Amino acid sequence: MTTTLYTTDHEWLAIDGDVATVGITDYAQSQLGDVVFVELPKVGRSLKKAEAAAVVESVKAASDVYAPVTGEVLETNDALAAEPALVNSDAQTKAWFFKIKIADKSELGGLMDEAAYKAHTA
Amino acid sequence: MLASDDKQSLKRTPLYDLHVSLGGKMVPFAGYDMPVQYPAGVLKEHLQTRNAAGLFDVSHMGQIALRPKSGKVEDAARALERLVPQDIVAIAPGRQRYAQFTNEDGGILDDLMVANFGDHLFLVVNAACKVEDEAHLRANLSDACIIDSLADRALIALQGPKAEAALGKLCAEAPSMKFMDAGPHTVAGIKCFVSRSGYTGEDGFEISVAASDAERLAKTLLENPDVRPIGLGARDSLRLEAGLCLYGHDIDTETSPVEAALEWSVQKSRRTGGARAGGFPGAEKILAHFDHGASRRRVGLLAQGRAPVREGALLFADSAGGEPIGKVTSGGFGPSLNAPVAMGYVPAASSALETKLFAEVRGQFLPLTVAAMPFVKNTYKR
Predict the structure, then answer these.
(1) How many C-beta atoms lie closer than 10 Å to residue A52's C-beta?
(2) From CA B340, how far away is CA B317, in angstroms rounded?
């Protein structure tokens, strides 16, 4: 059973136990435009909440993706290196960026559920 | 935010309503509210232009007529040669040429297109520089010319392999025009100035039209299914792949035409030993660059990886960094090349093709190779 939460920076987190799978939202990809490159964090890297964790580049500009919670990077999505356009076509499913082991579950308290995120982007 | 970027103070081109109705994403650019992209997006718009035809609103650019007080266009040409290192006198009636306004230090104040319309010269200058350019012309050429700002005209670029066929349906003479031909033509019954030129590396046309007729003309062109509207985002990636300079980025008041690798645009007649050598601002410095070389040079840069190297990235000779030797002035992703492309300035000694360099991107030193421009072969109809 996973729960999906959202940040004000337009990242989504699918929470399964103490592991969060992180990506950018469909709204974010629509704002960025055609994604041509994604730089992912190294597996094993310890990220602090709000630290720049990944970079997503469109034809026109580079944007940081921030760590939504503190924790260690467990896995990254190699498919994005070969096919960055997945971020445009499948932002909230196939185009996950990384999985992070959540260090402090209390940090999840500040995140939004789907209804709140929808209101945020409306 | 700058006052000029304030949404309310932004100017609109005559095609503003059309952009909005086509779903254009409007952003501030050079004081205008301009479409950066349409719903298709930058990537598709770029490829549309390379594969079929794209329509660009470039009405924000400045259009100026230089009318000779003597009535002889040669006199306007001679006068303009005081401000640019190009041979303007040699531009035949019905022809156009690329030029630069230079300053006393040999830098570039703006780049522009100059056409000979028989009885006057027609200039197209950059939007961000047009007020200063016009003042510069008035201050220096008013003895010989009437400087006529054509502020009531729009400018539409139609670019790509299907531009000729698309315009040919509306203007019978268009297909027989050659690259850099320019003159008055009737398009869809509307009196226009048409040139066979543009800034994408593709064959195509720029069409100057009265503001009041602009929307009708653009809509007529867009009725052709091969023609789609293209925003500023793709205009930038297209010109970058074509190796063309963007003023304020790749060329500015600190770069001479020689440093900018624009020697091809300065005719022999204005160089040392030429019939009208010198006589333009900064001639001493620019001609010295021609005669003895410049210490740095604008070059094309191709990355080995997939990460775009963008404007401002520092360039290094060594993979470990150290002292930067240069800087990227334009860079991004080239959709037609399907790879990152960039240009920047490096020391002359590092400017040879195939030279290996490194660009600092987010703390890493990414390998680059000095490469020939254009990155994508141009398709001008010469």
Answers:
(1) 14
(2) 19
Neighbours of A35 (CB within 10 A): 25
Q: Backbone dihedral region of B275: left (phi > 0), alpha (psi from -120 to 50 degrees) or beta?
A: alpha
- Set of chain B residues whose Cβ sits within 8 Å of the Cβ of A62: 308, 310
List all residues 6 or more positions away from B215 whose beta carbon is below 8 Å from its beta carbon. Answer: B14, B15, B17, B18
Report pLDDT digits (tens) over B245-265. 999 999 999 999 999 999 999
Residue recorded with tokens 């792949």: B241
Q: Do the Cβ atoms of B261 and B255 come closer than 8 Å? A: no
pLDDT value of residue B6: 63
Q: Report the residue of A35, A37, A59 to disrupt the B interface, i.e. the one with the largest count of B CBs within 10 Å.
A: A59
| Residue A35, phi-psi category: left (phi > 0), alpha (psi -120 to 50), beta (remainder) | beta
Q: What is the pTM of this model?
A: 0.94
Cβ pair A37:B332 closer than 8 A: no
Q: What is the pLDDT of residues B325-373, one digit of tens each?
A: 999 999 999 999 999 999 999 999 999 999 999 999 999 999 999 999 9
Interface test with A, best of B34, B43, B44, B239 (most A CBs within 10 A): B43
Q: Are B221 and B158 in contact (CB under 8 A)?
A: yes
B238 neighbourhood in chain A, CB within 8 Å: none
Rounded-to-integer distance, Cα B82 and Cα B147, Å: 15
Distance (Å, whole) CA B203 – CA A121: 42
Q: Is B24 in CB contact (< 8 Å) with chain A?
A: no
A60 to B36: CB separation less than 8 angstroms, yes or no: yes
Residues of chain A falling short of pLDDT 70: 1
Q: In this structure, which amino acid lies at residue B24?
A: G
Residue-wise pLDDT tens digits, B78-92: 999 999 999 999 999
Spatial contact of B261 and B298, defined as CB atoms under 8 Å apart: yes
Query: Could you give the CA distance from residue B308 to residue A62 in angstroms, rounded to a whole number?
Result: 9
Residue A41 makes CB contacts below 8 A (sequence gap 6+) with: A47, A53, A54, A73, A76, A98
The answer to whether B84 and B100 have CB atoms below 8 angstroms apart is: yes
Cα B35 to Cα B26: distance, rounded to the nearest angstrom: 4
Q: Report in angstroms the alpha-carbon separations of B168 from A44, A91, B195.
A: 61, 43, 13
* Separation of alpha carbons A99 and A116, rounded Å: 23
Residues of A in contact with B44 (CB under 8 A): 34
